[in-house]
Design brief:
CATH class of the largest domain: Mainly Alpha
Structural class: mainly alpha
Oligomer: single chain
CATH topology of the largest domain: Growth Hormone, Chain: A
Order of helices and strands: HHHHHHHHHHHHHHHHHHHH
Number of domains: 2
Radius of gyration: 23 Å
Strand content: under 5%
Distance between the termini: 43 Å
Helix content: over 70%
Length: 523
């Protein structure tokens, strides 16, 4: 019997290496940002960003990325995937350079949004090129290697960010992207072949505009409400407006024959449950990581490198359990595995209610590991349910929707839980800052970073303010952790009510399934 002819590109594995470099820079940037929040907030050595501005530095990237993910995929099919990949990585590199030398929080926020535009072009392009250059028999192996490299980036990102901040200024966490981008551009031009879809889809310009406008307005109102209170029109007005715009987006997408987000898929309860569980768990997790960044570096006084090392158990658990969770799904079914994973996340988040200013380090490390293990067992069963609940030809679209909802869930988690953190902190510290001058009182009431800055100028009296700020922040952190746990519990209810007990008897088609499965796990 003669062996089958290999139809893949002769340099396919070298091309895969180039694509991994391209995506690595995007993933690294998002994982190093959390450890840099304190340095960015520093009014002397950073840009003096407030807590709400730091939330926007995270969300400006995430919202743009989520809104443009589908559009860049269609543009790549039309104009050429190599061309779009090059454009995306160049935009990302330029935006990284702008971010590194930003002089104000506003400049940083806009630069991060530009990074989101570039990042949204990179991810679908890399996956499409992999599908084009690899034979179907090798494609799953190639995408597995691609996903493994992404997992490695998640693991080393916080440590790399901490190392850079120990030795250089805060902008180095963005500047490190530039030489990687330059290498990536050269290698892409030399190694990667061009490809297009002979029957590309149409671009939903109106849908993209409505989705981004609605989400930005909603998030703006939530963040502003956390900073100034929700009784002002500047807070509830954008929230109401954002909800109305998103309702118009849904109505428009239902009538569109080329929707940027196929909302019709949500009519399927199993699909809705699977996607909702992904959104809810990332809502809870991203909000938690936001307040942990301040807790570790301000309340506990850890350096940026030490804070990054504290996150390694989370990444290690992901690397250990994620590859094994598919086997667990086959044995126990998606409902059981996903519910247990959500329960582990909920228990971990609830445990932060008892974390104080002197909690032993080993407790924090265990909590990070258990949360990572829980999240590693949410994505695979949810993705399997997405695949099995849709027709085979919709597998790729369904997973892309899942990835978009994941990004949106994370952005809303940072906004909602960050606003809760800000509001409770402001109320708790009110008495301690009542005797300060108006300007100093406003700065100290805004965030724990501001309070530390005021305390540094107050001489011996600053120690009392620092103690009050730490106590107020830990109390606010408990409220945010409780909110995270409640969201995770809602996720458990959704999973138990609607996720299927057993895996579907059929499997998705060979070509779109691996791409779609990994697309749901990255970004």
């Amino acid at each position: 019997m003669q062996p089958q002819t290999q139809t893949g590109h002769p340099r396919r594995w070298a091309i895969l290496g180039v694509l991994v470099i391209s995506l690595l820079v995007v993933v690294l940037d998002n994982t190093v940002l959390n450890v840099a929040l304190k340095a960015i907030a520093d009014p002397i050595h950073g840009v003096g960003a407030s807590q709400s501005q730091l939330e926007w530095a995270i969300n400006s990237y995430t919202l743009v990325f989520a809104g443009l993910l589908f559009t860049w995929g269609v543009l790549g099919d039309r104009a050429g995937r190599k061309r779009v990949l090059l454009l995306g990585i160049v935009l990302f590199g330029l935006a990284s350079l702008i971010s590194a030398y930003a002089q104000t929080p506003t400049q940083l926020i806009w630069a991060r949004a530009l990074m989101g535009i570039g990042g949204a072009a990179v991810m679908p392009s890399t996956l499409s090129i992999i599908s084009n250059v690899f034979d179907p028999r090798e494609r799953a192996k190639a995408i597995g290697a691609w996903a493994g490299a992404v997992g490695l980036a998640v693991a080393i990102g916080p440590v790399l960010g901490g190392f850079l901040l120990e030795h250089f200024w805060w902008g180095s966490v963005f500047l490190i992207n530039v030489p990687i981008v330059v290498i990536g551009v050269v290698l892409i031009m030399i190694m990667v072949p061009e490809s297009r879809d002979p029957n590309p889809g149409r671009i939903d310009v109106v849908g993209v505009a409505l989705s981004i406008a609605g989400l930005v307005a909603l998030v703006y109102g939530i963040i502003d409400g956390g900073e100034h209170g929700f009784g002002r029109f500047q807070s509830w007005g954008p929230i109401v407006g954002g909800v109305l715009v998103l309702a118009a987006f849904v109505a428009f997408e239902l009538r569109s024959d080329h929707p940027s987000l196929d909302v019709r898929l949500f009519r399927n309860p199993r699909f809705s449950a699977a996607v909702s569980s992904v959104g809810l768990v990332f809502f809870a997790a991203m909000g938690t990581m936001f307040f942990l960044a301040f807790y570790l570096q301000m309340v506990r006084g850890y350096t940026a490198l030490q804070s990054g090392l504290m996150m390694t158990p989370f990444a290690a658990a992901q690397l250990i359990f994620a590859p094994r969770s598919a086997g667990m799904v086959r044995r126990y079914g998606p409902k059981a595995v996903c519910a247990v994973g959500m329960a582990l996340v909920a228990v971990t988040l609830a445990a932060y209610l008892w974390v104080g200013a002197t909690t032993p380090v080993w407790v924090l490390l265990v909590l990070a590991f258990v949360q990572g293990a829980g999240m590693a067992n949410v994505m695979p069963p949810a993705t399997e349910s997405v695949m099995s609940s849709l027709p085979r030809e919709k597998a790729g679209v369904g997973s892309a929707v899942s990835n978009t909802i994941r990004q949106i869930g994370g952005a809303l988690g940072v906004a909602v839980l960050g606003s809760l953190l800000s509001a409770v902190y402001r109320d708790n510290i009110a008495d301690a800052v009542a005797g300060l001058p108006a300007g100093a009182r406003d700065v100290a009431s805004e965030s724990i970073t501001g309070a530390y800055g005021v305390a540094a100028q107050a001489g011996p009296a600053g120690a009392e303010l620092i103690e009050a700020a730490n106590s107020s922040f830990v109390s606010a952190m408990h409220w945010a952790a409780g909110g995270s746990a409640v969201v995770a519990l809602i996720g458990i209810g959704v999973v138990l009510a609607w996720l299927p007990r057993h895996s579907a008897p059929h499997t998705p088609p060979a070509q779109p399934a691996p791409e779609a499965r990994e697309l749901a796990e990255v970004g």
